[in-house]
Amino acid sequence: MTTSSSTVAPITDTSLTGFYKDMTVTEKRTFWACATGWALDGMDFMIYPLVIGTIIALWQVDAGSAGLAGTVTLLASAVGGWAAGYLADRIGRVRTLQLTIIWFSLFSLLCAFAQNFEQLLILRALLGFGFGGEWAAGAVLIGETIRPQYRGRAVGSVQSGWAVGWGLAVLAQAALFSLLPAEQAWRWMFAIGALPALLVLYLRAYVKEPQVAVEARAKVTAAGGSRSILAIFQGRILKTTILASLVATGCQGGYYAITFWVPRFLTTERKLSIVGSTGYLATLIIGSFVGYLVGAWFADRFGRRSLFLTFSLGAMVVVLAYTQLPLSNEMLWVLGFPLGFFASGYFSGMGAFLTELFPTSLRGSGQGFCYNFGRGVGALFPFLVGYLSQVTTLANAICLFAVFAYVLFFAAAYALPETRGRVLSADE
Which residues cross the membrane (predicted)? Predict the structure, then answer.
């Protein structure tokens, strides 16, 4: 079995925004649905890291346990992502996306009513199950809908929605913690995480199932059934599954080691208030947003693999400087931009890359498993950073795990082929 089509579409217009004006109505509707979903997904996930200091103070939770809640969320998302990917191959990308959005919106709302840390831990785990599924279904949906010559930029631009969602979470934090006492503000933060449920109405009305997926499911049904959930571990596709899972582990492990603990790093080791740290996080978020857009352009212009190699090296250098050099707070503020840029921009190539690696009949399962396997292993990093920070500085703990992750990311990406421009087929 081949891992993807060998047909490659020529890419003539490589400008950052050139893809959008030439997209069809169907492509644009799918683009905005997935971009909005990913923004709200990012907002939901980043709410907990932003209120972690308040949770620690109110419920007397140690840093390791607080990090465990982030880890449990991501571990559950790994299971949810694989399950949703398989479900997307069985019942469709759009239906699966609707189900996962409703799921994680509901449990974000329920987090607002948690009465102790144990309840919050369980609710975050259940939220994570839907959170991982949303990415799996949405990434396959847009990857199959957008034409190959625009896929890298379109999927990468959708990824920039995460930075928008992160920014919305930081703005909500600044507003709510200024207007309300901390013991009430954190609950309202989780309550606004229910907003993604409204997106389902748009999905039902305007977003269509990709034709290539419809045809592939019809072929599988005509052949007498569906593929096994374990098919991605068989034959020639096994090597692709292993290497793609390692790529996803490295890129997400580094990202979570940084973004989960930077808010806490700023308020403890840099002695900034919650509101005072907003400007520092804003610089990081702006860098992330620009990184996503540049990464999207880079993925189509130079290739997905080149994006991963370049940005993983850049992320290593900036993380070392951010955490290990004796910088003033002013310099740290400036360095937030390249930190966000390199630690986020490589995600712009992930969706398109995984879409192009796997055959259509296994794309949901393969993409859902690999990305969320990486998310599951990367989920250990918030816990491990928090645990290690009890015997060394938080800066050292962040640096150690982030650099390790980026070395793994670089090595696995180097071992995989370039997929830029590959044409998807229902016959795969």
Answer: 31-59, 65-84, 96-115, 121-142, 163-182, 188-207, 237-258, 278-299, 306-325, 331-357, 369-388, 394-416
pLDDT band at 287; cut points 50, 70, 90: very high
Distance between CA atoms of 222 and 426, rounded to whole angstroms? 13
Angle of helix 237-259 relative to helix 380-388, nearest 10 degrees?
40
- Per-residue pLDDT at 14: 67
Q: State the Cα–Cα distance between residues 274 and 337, nearest whole angstrom.
A: 19
Report pLDDT digits (tens) over 355-396.
888 888 788 888 888 988 898 888 788 788 888 888 888 889
What is the per-residue pLDDT across 60-93, written as a single tens digit (0 to 9) for each?
888 778 877 877 887 888 888 888 888 888 888 8
Q: Report the number of secondary-structure helices (H) and strands (E) in the chain.
A: 19, 0
**Identity of the residue numbered 393:** T
Say if CB 295 and CB 345 are below 8 A apart.
Answer: yes
> CB-based contacts of 51: which residues, under 8 Å, 6+ apart?
173, 185, 186, 189, 190
CA distance 375 to 132: 8
pTM for this predicted structure? 0.75
Structure tokens at 131: 């959170």
With b meaning 16 or more CB within 10 Å and e meaning fewer, what string describes 261-281? bbbbbbbbebebebeebbebb
Q: Is the pLDDT of residue 328 over 50?
A: yes
Q: What is the pLDDT of residue 4?
A: 44
Domains of the chain: 24-208 (1.20.1250.20), 231-423 (1.20.1250.20)
Site of tokens 């931009």: 337
For the chain, state the CA radius of gyration: 20
The structure tokens listed for 167 are: 């920014």
The closest alpha carbon to 68, from 385, 312, 296, belongs to 385
**Residue 104's closest CA among 45, 163, 51, 52?**
45
